[in-house]
Amino acid sequence: MKLNLKIWRQEHSEAKGSLVNYQLDGVTTHMSFLEMLDMLNETLIQKGERVIEFDHDCREGICGQCGLMINGRAHGPLKHTTTCQLHMRSFKDGDTVYIEPFRANAFRVLKDLKIDRSSFDRIIKAGGYISASTGQAPEANSIPIGHEQAEAAFDAAACIGCGACVATCKNSSAALFTAAKAVHLAILPQGQIESAGRVLAMVDKMDEEGFGHCSNTEACEVECPQGISVLHIAELNFRYHKSRLLKK
Amino acid sequence: MVRLKGSTQAYKLWMALTGLFLCVFLVIHVLGNLQLFLPAEQAREQFNWYSRLLSGNILIMLISYVLYFSILAHVFYAIVLTLKKKKANGAAYAYDRRANVSPWYSRNMGLLGTIILLFLIIHLKDFWYQYKFGELPLDSQGQKDLYQIVITTYRQFWYVLVYELGLLALGFHLLHGFFSAARTLGLYHPKYVRIMKVFGWGYTVLIIAGFMAMPVYIYLMT
């Protein structure tokens, strides 16, 4: 099939970018969205033009590297899907496809569709870990954890940090990401000890990085490749208020 | 811009708490207004007595200050959060279909809130200002005849229309606001979240139906 692509091109983070039109013929329904972009890039190389830069890594939907705004939706028209797991069967011959980077003040565009998500890393650095002496991995069953509790923690820990929640949020809030990371540790015995300080540090860091507030539109849960529940945000709020109240 | 002390969480908390206080106020307001549905003569006496009771009570007066404060704080923090959001968003998308995955009213609380604020100004000018500072006729009991003002106002078709539209905006604002406030306060247990959602819907429908029925009833009956 033949597609009309309108792709965001930007030389560097300070440069002014714009949408550029490309025509691509010979796209098959079996291709993934990223393979379609690879194909376009091959034609650009043959023409001696600069290739379109975009983030990607595993192409299996688990690493959280890829992330594009496709036709005005984070990761494209499907729910709970990464960009790499979106296939061209979701498009028709002759379609016009807008491809833009995830946008937020806290996500700087580096080049074309490639963005800087290190603000996420700094939120994790603020408290998204457990302080423990390193060494050999401890025996997994030495701390008993019930099945339901383990599953609940996994549901939150499934976050791959792709940034779709921020991109789709009308306020560019990182509430779902921060909630997933803080709550998954808070509900496990290893993470409970530092829970209060962690929640405060991570939420305050999210503020400092320039993310917006959560107004509970729940759009993030729909676009999240892992379908992380927005109830984690409510739990984050609960834990934040509690920690703030009890802080000495 | 002046940098405000306090976190986004604190602003959100103010929005939720003032919003919920206003929700409680609406219950009292709609219940009081039910007296308008009494037979005309009885309604006049009853409603005017009730108005005098409210305006003369020191406890009600104190609560009314909390009410004025809540409205102002709700508007103030809404503006603060909107400015913050503008800054957080950065560049706009050239093609934006993000609205497809969430209810329209949840994404337009600011717009709905602005409509409600305009409506509130009209509403306060019509009744609150009239009662406090205007020249009102007296009823047979010698009470200020607010009932007459209400009747005269709702006899005008376009006025009824403005009220119905304002109340619709309020309805959608409540539909999202009520449950969003619960989330902001940290209600996360799935069972109670479900209960709260149903409760929020029921609350909104009853309140708005009650308010919307009044102008229509008076327009048709008098």
Automatic annotation (TrEMBL), chain A:
Q: Which cofactors?
A: [2Fe-2S] cluster; [3Fe-4S] cluster
| Domain 4Fe-4S ferredoxin-type, residue spans | 150-179
Q: Which residues form the signal peptide?
A: none
Biological process according to GO: aerobic respiration; respiratory electron transport chain
What InterPro entries does this protein's entry cite? 2Fe-2S_ferredoxin-like_sf, 2Fe2S_fd_BS, 4Fe4S_Fe-S-bd, Beta-grasp_dom_sf, Helical_ferredxn, SDH/FRD_Iron-Sulfur, Succ_DH/fum_Rdtase_N
A Gene Ontology MF term for this entry? 2 iron, 2 sulfur cluster binding
Alphabetical list of PANTHER family matching this protein: SUCCINATE DEHYDROGENASE, SUCCINATE DEHYDROGENASE IRON-SULFUR PROTEIN
Family of this protein: Belongs to the succinate dehydrogenase/fumarate reductase iron-sulfur protein family.
- Could you identify this protein by its name? Fumarate reductase
Automatic annotation (TrEMBL), chain B:
Protein name per the record: Succinate dehydrogenase
Which keywords describe this protein according to UniProt?
A: Membrane, Transmembrane, Transmembrane helix
Where are its TM segments located? 12-38, 58-83, 104-124, 157-179, 200-220
GO annotations of cellular component type: membrane
* Keyword Membrane belongs to the record: yes
Instruction: Give a yes or no for keyword Transmembrane helix in this entry.
Output: yes
Organism taxonomic ancestry: Bacteria, Pseudomonadati, Bacteroidota, Sphingobacteriia, Sphingobacteriales
What CDD domains does the entry give? Answer: SQR_TypeB_2_TM
Question: Where on the tree of life does the source sit, at the highest rank?
Answer: Bacteria
